[in-house]
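Exercise 4. Each item below gives a protein and its sequence. For each, produce the structure-token representation.

Item: Large polyvalent protein associated domain-containing protein (viral metagenome).
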Amino acid sequence: GTIVPEKGTPPPEIPPSIPNVPEPTPPSGRPRTLLDLNREAKGMRAVSPENRAAIMDVARPINEDELLYQVKSFGEHAKNLLQPDSLIKQSLRNTPGLKQVVGLINPAQMERDNPVAMTGVRKQIFEEIETGRARLATLNWWHDADGVFDFKQVKGKWRATNIELTPSADPSKPYHATIHDLVEHPENYNFTSEQERALQIAQDMQRQILRDAQKVGVDAVELFNDYWRRIVTKTPNVKLDSKTRSRIGQRKGYTRQRVFDFVDEGAKAGYEYETHPLTALQNRLETGIRTISDQSARQEIARLPGVEKPLERLQSRYPQTVEGIKQARQARDAAKTAYLRDGAVENETVLRQAEADYIIAMREVYQKKLEAGQPNIGELRLPNGRIAPAELVDEVRKWVDLPELQTSVGVVTNTIQQLTRLLRTTLTNLDLAAGFIQGQVLFYRNQIAWWRGQTNAINALIDDPTAYVAKNFDVMDEGMRMGAISVPTEFLFTRQGLASIPTRIPVAGRLMKAFNRAFEWFILTGQTELYKAARSRIIRKYDAGQETTNALVSLGSAIRKELGTESYAILGVRPTQHTVEQLSFFAARFFRALAGFQAQVFTGGEAGHEARRAWGQMLAGGLALTIAASYALNKEPPNLTDPFKPGWLSFKIGKTYFNAFGPYYPYLRTQARIAVLVSQGKHERAANEINKFLKSKAGLPFRAINMAAQFGVKGYYTTFEGKTLPATPLGMGEAFIGEMAVPISIQEAMKSIPEGRPESAIGEIFGLVGREKYPYFPEEMLAPYFDIPSSAIEMAAAKQDGTVQFSRTEYRQRNPEIDAMLFLKGYVTTIQTKPAGDIVLDIVNKEGYDVNQLRAVRAWLKDQEKRQELGIPDTSRTLTDNLIQSLLATTSSGKQPMDTISDSESAATPSISQDSLKLFDEFKRQIKEKNRQ
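Answer:
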């Protein structure tokens, strides 16, 4: 009768037909011995990985209509994303000097003629795009799978809670109802059709990634039974540390036999496994992507001119040896045939001599093969034992990231990147600031997209918005391939390594991961919605085919920059340059995106069109919002003319200035200041503005070095806002924690709430960065004042030639903040207006400054005799640390105090509030007491 397999047992499958090969005829009609079979096997080739994939495609086909993910060919993404070459790019590549300069910005375009570099670029692009696509596919699958199984964490493991058990099920098993048990023991469950479909789709993705690896030559064997990716999280003796766990989880487990057929057996032996279905599935696909990428790169390297296999070198360098072994083999075979036909003694002698000659020839071949496999002077060994010129190997190490070529330098750079990513991600956590930081342009460009991004960000505080992915999967997958959707990895925690440490902190770790997800999904949603909105116009405008693809890629370049992301892979930035940029800038990719988006305004194509439209909408919308807010809140127009004043292009809420341009405000302010200074012929100061701007973007390691240097050399540290912190434990602790460790939103709350500026703390949470109404007055604000001539003669000449419009007194009257700063810093002894006096009073009450003591210490720093006359025996104890450090910062600029008031200022009559007058009288009394001492 018919044998019915047990439920859950895979049905027998018919192997693919294999071409009939005639069985070898045994010599002399005798049966073949083991020696004969061994000799025959040596002459046969094993089934190649490519053939294994082809066989399994026939034996166990995958339904491509249901398949959510399959990798693209190795070079497809690079071909599309790098765009066609152009005459301008060719000219730049052929111009020494320009090639190197442009190569720092876009190495990929300047290295198109370098085949090794392009292999590395293709590899980076392949890994970045495919990893993003795989994540979207798994999230899409998880949306459906979790809906039908309702996975929940029960007794420390993720288990299906919406499942019907069969009588054979054992709920007491450690891995009962986990994804492993569902797949390995389906006989224990009655699956619905939706549940069977969900399991089948996930299984097909894992099988497909294996076959894709086989098709590029990865020597792996597909397990015929169903299985799920296993990640060991605990060994029988001890728990694995994160490094070991990462290594085990990423090893290519599919290339070796499993120790246990079922996880139940592993559990009995003391092993524990990852049970979250999504985590294991994502890990499997990402590991396969890296394997395919590595193998494809090796194949491209092997095809480079000058790269030789040991056998190829043997044939080219020792042709006589190769010919000799060929002739010896033929002679031996002929002698053997003759002996088997006629076993005469003379034929046996000839056979033995032929076999001896063959053995000698084999020994010579073996020796020559060893020699051919050794690199000569000027040569080095490449992966898979190939030999190439040393300069070619150096190029491969420079451009191609392969595990067998990783050096100690690579380990160090990777550690540095992990550390900077840890600090940067921690600083930018615990807020919803992406909406007005990365999404500032989107706010003006597409309000619907901005609000959808904010909605998904709120949803992501709970979990990944898989419903959004499932609904938009096709367009998101296309957007990934066109470069429009780019994950902001530099602001995200990692799963393993240094940058994952905060996520493992109890309670706080889950909270930080939640805000990290919110940040990520605002950006991904914004990019998706922008791409959806513009995509239909592109498709209607261009003919189908490569022209449409090129237009969409061009559009994608602008979209990813609009949301503050840039792709190092598409730019072709090498790991070494990547590390240098991470050290140099706080957020290098974000900095590139902002700068690149502004430069893209001047380019052509769809990228330039999108950039100009978005940039124009932001400028118009931001300016309108600034004017409206200023009139509504302050009943006055905003400062639109003087970029050196704190309130330039801003509106005031309470005691805080806000702007409507987000991360672009520093760029606009710097550009405005440079324009003013250049128009006045002050090129040195204009260059200094660029220097100060770059310093404000400095990376965390440089900030730490600068902080340590200032504390060690100057005895204090000056923040970017101008605040000075003394070299005391409290001051150094505030500097380090404030600059390096505590999230920015918490820093601002700790600073602004005690100062009575809660609006600044609230704004920081949502990305609205505020500046104090009366900030610490950086010295640069005084530059326009000191540029005005102090003498009446020089002033008259300057007014006559039009270089100066106001006298110093008039300038102070028009700018109360400058007037107050000059007084507080000790440059002048009078105040010109009541608003300036109110500012001084506000700051003195807030900081506890003694203005007369400020002047006394300035004089002491200028002249030791003056210090003794004032009777200040020990300034460091008599005056507060905050006062001394503020004064040191003032004098370090090299400005000399004004001992006398100029003629142009002497006629001015100060007009200040009565409270200010009382305070200044008290200062006079204090200084008189000091003089008497």
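Check: Residues 219 and 437 are 47 Å apart (CA to CA).
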